[in-house]
Amino acid sequence: MNRFLWPLIGFIVLVVFLGIGLNLNPREVPSPFIGKPAPAFTLPQLADPHQTFSPKDMQGRVWLLNVWASWCVSCREEHPVLMELAKTKAVPIVGLDYKDPRDDALRWLQQFGDPYVLSIADAEGRVGIDYGVYGVPETFVIDKAGVIRHKHIGPVTREALQEKILPLVRELQK
Amino acid sequence: MKEWLLAILCTLALASAWAREAAPLAADEAVEKRLVAISEELRCLVCQNESLAASRADLAVDLRRQIREQIREGRSDREIMDYMVARYGDFVRYRPPLKGTTLLLWFGPALLLVAGMTTLVLYLRRRGSRVHDATLSAEEQARADALLSQGATDTEKQS
């Protein structure tokens, strides 16, 4: 009995570690931006390139910055959820159209609906890099002072919205 | 045989015709050298197990462009590395910095090795002290001889 006890304990410890490792999502890289001011930028709006948008335009409001693109498959998966969220008017969503030809982006919004208060065009992906975007879609929760409070990587699901994003938004809106 | 050779040669010729022209190496070779040196230290976040230098992902191409521009602007390697870490965190570095949260990462393997060696040495010592030369008493010797000779006759019978 004793002969097998220690190897057994070692085995169990190994299994526990491997189990934890398997359940972690390797694509979710912790963002260094949490608790830091959202990087400043000025970009043309998608609908009207003559108008620009800066994060400071949203000062005093809690808002979501959703990185999307017409070429992004997971964005379609996420889209109905954003449409529902937009209908509730719980929080304004600003779209960052990432490395997308303008015509494609406009057609995409026309086809699937537009949940954004406005979208901005990041044609070269430079603002995306400044925000540490590596996998579209990504969603940032930004507070009234312009500080990034949360980053959701991958499509926003109903669960993520109900359990994490909306409670945080409500708390920040207080 | 000759036909085969001809066919192979034709295919090869075609393949080289198909091959895309090499991406234009930027005019400044020194910049490219530094770019490669820096991007080999960085992880491509899309593919994760590929370096930024090796990856063909769109993001990697963009990031290399960004690094190239910064080199031209005269920034140091350290500044460029800080720029990347500020955006993508320590995860982007293949050589994570030594700090509280990475202590286990840096010294874990050595710790495991020491623990393993200690266990092995302790185990071997304990076993060494338990195994000692045993001498047989006359009675035991006689019994062992009897058993051995019995075995010998058994095998003779069988063969």
Mean pLDDT over the full residue set of chain B: 82
CATH superfamily of the largest domain in chain B: Cytochrome C biogenesis protein
> How widely separated are the two ends of chain B?
62 Å
Helix content of chain A: 40-55%
CATH class of chain A: Alpha Beta
Q: Strand portion of chain A, in percent?
A: 15-25%
The counted number of beta strands of chain B is 0
Order of helices and strands of chain B: HHHHHH
Radius of gyration of chain A (Å): 20 Å
Morphology of chain B: elongated
List keywords for this structure.
heterodimer, A: 174 residues, alpha/beta, Glutaredoxin, five-stranded mixed beta sheet, 7 strands, B: 159 residues, mainly alpha, Helicase, Ruva Protein, domain 3, 2 domains, 6 helices, 0% strand
Descriptive overview:
The complex is a heterodimer of chains A (174) and B (159). In chain A, 40% of the residues lie in helices and 18% in strands. By secondary structure, chain A is an alpha/beta fold. Chain A has one domain: 3-Layer(aba) Sandwich (Glutaredoxin). In chain A, the strands form 2 sheets. In chain A, strands 5-4-3-6-7 form a 5-stranded mixed beta sheet. Chain A has a two-stranded antiparallel sheet with strand order 1-2. In chain A, strand 1 (43-44) and strand 2 (52-53) form a beta hairpin. The longest helix of chain A has 22 residues, at 2-23. Chain A is elongated and about 80 Å long. With 159 residues, chain B is mainly α. Chain B has 2 domains: 24-97, Orthogonal Bundle (Helicase, Ruva Protein, domain 3), CATH 1.10.8; 101-158, no CATH class. Chain B contains 6 helices and no strands. In chain B, helix 2 crosses helix 3 (58-72). The longest helix of chain B is centred in the last third of the chain and has 28 residues, at 103-130. Chain B is elongated, with a radius of gyration of 34 Å. At the A-B interface, helix 4 of A face helix 3 and helix 4 of B.
